[in-house]
Amino acid sequence: MSNLLTVVSVGVLFVFLWWANNNLDQFALRVMRTGAVYIVAAVAYNLVNGITGQFSLGPNGFMAIGGYAMALLMLPLEQKKFVWFLEPQMWPFNSFSLPGELFVVALIVGGLLGALGALIVGIPSFRLRGDYLAIATFGFGEIIFVLANNLIPLTNGPLGIKGIPEYADIYWCFGSAVVATLFVKNLVNSSYGRAMKGIREDEIAAEAMGVNIFRTKMQAFLVSGFFAAVAGGLLGALVTTVSPTLFTFMMTFNLLIIIVLGGLGSITGSVITAFGFAVAMELLRVMEAPINIGPIHLPGIAGMRMVIFSVLLIVLMIFWRRGLFGQWDFSWNWLLSKIGITSKAAEAISPVEQNGAPRPTATSVRAEAQEGGVLMSLQNLTIRFGGLVAVSDFSLDIKKGEIVGLIGPNGAGKTTIFNIITGQYTPDSGHVFFDGSDITGWRPDLIARAGIARTFQNIRLFGELSVLDNVLVSEHLGIKSSLLTAALGLPRYLSEEREARSRAMALLKLVGLADLYDVQAGALPYGQQRQLEIARALATHPKLLLLDEPAAGMNPEETKRLMTFIRELRDRFSLTIFLIEHHMEVVMGICERIRVLDYGVSIAEGTPKEIQTNPRVIAAYLGEEEG
Amino acid sequence: MKRMVGIFVCAMFLLCGGGFALAADPEPIVIGFNLEMTGQVAAYGQAGWEGANLIKEIVKPEVLGRPVVFRLLDNKSDRVEAANAAARLIEHDKAVAIIGTTISGNMLAAGEVCEKNKVPIIGPTTTNPLTTQGKKYVFRACFIDPFQARIAATYCYRDLGAKTAAILSDISNDYCVALGKFFQEQFEALGGKVVSVTYCKAGDQDYSAQLTEIKSKNPDVIYIPNYYTEAALAIRQARDLGITQPVFGADGIATEEFLAIGGPAVEGVQHTTFWHEKAAVTEIGKKYVELYKQKFGQDKEVNVFGALTADCYLIVMDAIRRAGSADPTAVAQAIEDTENLEVVTGPVTIENGDAIKPVVFRVVKNGRWEYSSIVYP
Question: Residue B319: which domain range?
Fold first, then answer.
């Protein structure tokens, strides 16, 4: 249904363009084409800045690459001889030029080179966390500028290249805009897009759910670099000239305004504001013309439209702080439900009807658990933060199917141990063995893939994403289709997506959140957020589940239900559970074995009963008796 | 609150719409101006607009018995906007000819639009040789970069007797790099030798690396074709380092700021430029200088960008008169046929879209720009 509507509306658009091409004047067409080129560039830019949440300042550099590649390939041979009169043009570009029909090839070659540029900038920047990307991409734009000025045999240096045939007609411009928008939108709605949004919302949580941070950021960056370069190629063929000053930082700055105004993370917003930006700039020209209102004559003031534009921008930013569309995106389902053709519920509940993927039955799990091999073995873990020894010589074996508790006063180092297990911290000494491999120092996402999932003490959900999408981020590690397959919506990916969705819905049903699947996770009440964290952790298909204070903030009634629930989970998913908890009722009620930690040192281990009567434990919790 | 914003926005737009009032004159001839009124090089466009309005008072905007009206569009010093503005002037305002842009990069884009629509466009100061190359409807009212640099090189080799030269150009400005290249080409063609080519970047404060290299090569003359700030700083530091050779600049240093930043260090620096008020050889040029001083004060030096934009106006008006019609194609042909027309900056002849004009040499004397000589092509 949605696909059909998309095809029809693209068809309508092109009929309109055909009409416009025959009826509108050149100036109007030129403004429309400029708008379409901005759409390509803005959508590409938003994928990195808005969807993935990485602050890049580089689109001008990538656009320059695309612009020059297009110019070198398309410029007619006789024109090349004219243009490179200072120094001869370098081989092989001086010996060939592509015919107009192959304009698309030039755009794609430019796009691929743009992606290559993105790869070169991305590799060092994404290895580091923080704002290095902004600095590196800014520098990249500057380097391209200097290269373009100096590689005269290639770029004709500061004089630039002129006389490029005006291939970027209205069909090419809008065709590219449609392709870029649909590709990026499909990508954003796919599993890959959810992983990107997960990184934007909470990088640590996304990594703990098995998202390969480096690769996912890189994917967004490469796609963005590709389309930015395509936009650069189009721009060059629109203004018929390419030179270093066409792609200055101002270009990036304009694009930044567009995506912030449209809403960081909203493709719809980028498309509308990009086009609106181009049109408004020309419409606002009337503000600079001399004005006669009756007897009053006001002379035209150059720059007036920029003043008005700035005022509008400020007003918009005050009243729509998150841009015009925030992170909202248009979808056919939304439109159809608005006009009452399909009910929203019908579309969405359908996955719930299906049952989750087959899981081992309770009996088989029990049998496995009884075999009781060691699943995880922590050996002599020590970690220091500065002078403070947070955990000292900690060792623990956890058998398959066990529920083990870790208790201790605040600051004892419990969460630190979880962070070591899940790879957030690397211990100064000691090893973590899991399921037969030494996973010490592995990246968190690899550890998640190996089968360890966790919840967080201070809830770390992807607040802006829906409840269902939170769970689906974890399902990303099971997706086998490539990014291209996903963005093109090929059947192979769609069936994977359907399965992931039905598994996720089954998990939500299990934690009692199925009816709230489309609610924003950040809007859930506290207790349900904890439940959702568990569902999200389960979606990574773990063998070992680490729960960090699952009962925090719950009343006695809820606590009781939680205890039953944890036991059920263990049985149903053949899990092993390691939990940190302060509620003694929970710890004593469900743990088969308890370890007590104080100032980073183990002080006791045993069954709940043994622990309850251990004098050292009592001392640690209540303070030692004087004397 | 949102409603208030809505009302505000609507009011703004109504205001714009209400401003659409048609001029009462019958059948005016429209000359479009596509200028850099805002943005990076706003000073050029503003000076140009000033010049156009000044010359209008000397040569009345009337031709073939029809009034001439100006239509100004700002291109924000941006290439995409320059092309859009050209299209708009042609489509909406039915401009017979367009004056502008002041910088070459914008002309490369706007010129293409004009060429396609067969409407003449003439740039006052677009010195990049590529802008007019192979075009029938694109013109310029100034000399081209190679010409300026070649004249400078010839002067250095023949008149100063320099056999070796060093070039220090600003890598971040196309104009500076190109001038450096053209200078080198000509200087070496004459038999001289360029012993050192070094680069700086706009905004640089310290030039010791480049200057040390230049000092070690001991050239007879140093060519610094950069904009005023960078050039003045470099020359000051050169003098501090004990580099005493003559320094030559291009038209980019023709500002008061150059003298202020350079102080006594730039004494004796020479440069090539489009014009100097003392080189006002034509009748109209003298009138222009007089009116300028009357309007802006006796001490203010006449702005070159304004003078060249005034030239454009005179060239276009003359072409319309000779063409005997306001048909853009005929006007373009007439512009190309311009020969020995007396304009503000001297007599001008147009050949293949380029103005054949003299180069003016100036020298810094007692902290002021003084006219030194004029070289006819």
Answer: 29-143+286-358
